[in-house]
Amino acid sequence: MIQIPHTKKLDSTLDVFRDGYTFIQNTSEQLQSDIFQVRLLGMKVICLHGPEAARVFYDPELFMRKGALPKRIQKTLTGENAVQTLDNEMHHQRKGMFMSLMTPGNIHRLMALISKEWQFAGKKWESSNETVLFKEAQDVFCRAVCAWAGVPLPENKVRKRARDLGWMVDAFGAIGPKHWRGKRARRRSEKWIRKIVKQVRSGKLPLDDKLPAAVVAHYREANGKQLDLNMAAIELLNLIRPIVAIAWYVVFSALALHQYPVTRQKLLAGEDNYEELFVQEVRRYYPFTPFLGALVRTDFNWNGYSFQKGTMVLLDVYGTHHDARIWERPDAFYPERFRDWQGSRFDFMPQGGGDFSNGHRCAGEWITIEAMKISLHFLIKGIKYEVPEQDLHFSLSKLPTLPKSGFIINRVRRTDNFNPTIVAMGCPFH
Ligand code: HEM
User: Fold this and answer.
1) Cβ count within 10 A of residue 214
2) Residue located nearest, by CA, to atom 23 of ligand 1
3) What pLDDT score does 391 carry?
């Protein structure tokens, strides 16, 4: 048996706070190994980097999710005991509920709502001195997803709800005030959505059975029982929150347009399939998901290394997207790299790797890609704007990160050219 490489440090928690997104890749390069062991908060953790390791990480026979997601993240980002923490049949069933919503028709309906919201937003921005794109994108997605799901959202509550959903995501790697803010935001959001689920179940809020809020409210587990009220609210939020989180990618798309103007020219010229290539490159190049965690399900050996049951394992997502062995010039923003991309489900994993239905890969990848394309189309073709002087730097230590300004634009003028083609690709199971 080969010993798993490790650093000389007794505990590496501070290094994670310092290096953030680059912690695993930096350490991996330093130790010249795609696997290494550290202690984080006193706990033994094995870190994995690269596609070969990702393939193992996504083997459900070897890894499980129960017990892997720290409570502090469940109390802010995901909700407690949600789909992200399930395994085996229970996971398969619950995931099925999410996947059943990812039909081309459903996705098309959501994209039409998002397009409409962008148009309204553009009109409003024309009379504003300054627009913070991050906030506006959150509001656009929040209005659209609530209308899509069947969740009533009065206009005077949009900012509050969208902000809370964003704070839940923002709390991911935070300690102290930001973590507490995320916790409070989750409590408020769960309370709001519990009320909706209750109303749907009692018929006080009559909804078409096919609308996402109704599907979640009426969903029955294998034992024939409905989800308890709290769990139903948590899972409905697991649909609403990540759609609002696409605002992060919209800001990074705007940043890329600003920092790499040649890509804007290509988009304006309507170069073949360039919107799709651009969106994929935004998801590769910019930091959002840093790493993923799972617990070793059973003792096993991999490449001569021994993994013991119950050990926490982290898979490097950001670092794998920036590995020069996989991506030529990984630190260049170059959408064309995706034109003939022959990648696998394990080297490009912005929303998780492996399989959708049996594994934990994100249920909303199609929605994300399509929503990003429509938003990009709006920024390119729907409006003209200027980007005033501001600090556009984003820190790789912060999880998740974003330019501090939220990307300010001004002098917005609408054009008549916003005609997005909605290609509603659904999940392959429909
Ligand atoms: C902002 C864009 C998004 C990012 C970066 C993202 C990222 C992720 C990641 C990294 C995972 C975990 C994968 C794993 O554990 O292996 C995940 C899971 C999940 N995502 Fe997303 N996601 C996004 C958008 C969405 C959308 C739009 C939806 C739904 C409409 C969604 C619903 C889910 C669900 C339900 C899971 C849990 C899957 C499971 O545990 O089986 N996500 N996402």
Assistant:
1) 19
2) 242
3) 97
CB within 8 Å of 288: residues ≥ 6 apart: 248, 249, 252, 350, 400
Six-digit token pair at 67? 């017990």
pLDDT in tens, 185-238: 999 999 999 999 999 999 999 999 999 999 999 999 999 999 999 999 999 999
Q: What is the pLDDT of residue 218?
A: 98
> In the prediction, which pLDDT does 429 show?
47
Tell me if 65 sits within 8 A of 360, measured CB to CB: yes
231 lines ligand 1 (CB under 6 A): no
For the chain, the average pLDDT equals 96
The closest residue, in CA terms, to atom 10 on ligand 1 is: 351
**CA distances, 409 to each of 125, 128, 257, 275, 328 (Å):** 9, 10, 12, 21, 32
Q: What is the mean pLDDT of residues 153-182?
A: 97
pLDDT for 390 equals: 98
- Backbone phi and psi for residue 132, each to the nearest 5 degrees, phi listed first: -95, 110
Ligand 1, atom 35, lies closest to the CA of: 363
Give the tokens for residue 186. 């989750």
**DSSP 3-state assignment of 260?**
coil
* pLDDT for res 346: 96
Distance 261 CA to ligand 1 centre (A): 30
Residue type, 121: A
| Strands 312-316 and 43-49, sheet pairing | parallel
**16-34 burial string, b = 16+ CB within 10 Å, else e?**
beebbbbbbbebbeebebb
Q: Would residue 140 be called left, alpha or beta, if left means φ above 0 and alpha means ψ between -120 and 50 degrees? A: alpha
- C-alpha angle with apex 124: 118 to 127, nearest 5 degrees? 145
- Provide CB contacts within 8 A for 330, sequence distance 6+: 321, 322, 323, 324
- Does this model's pTM top 0.85? My answer is yes
Q: Which of 362, 374, 375, 429 to mutate to test the pocket of ligand 1 (most atoms within 8 A of CB)?
A: 362
Instruction: Give the distance, in angstroms, between the CA of residue 14 and the centroid of all CA atoms in the same chain.
Output: 25
pLDDT of residue 430: 45
For the cut 70, the answer to whether the pLDDT of residue 428 exceeds it is: no
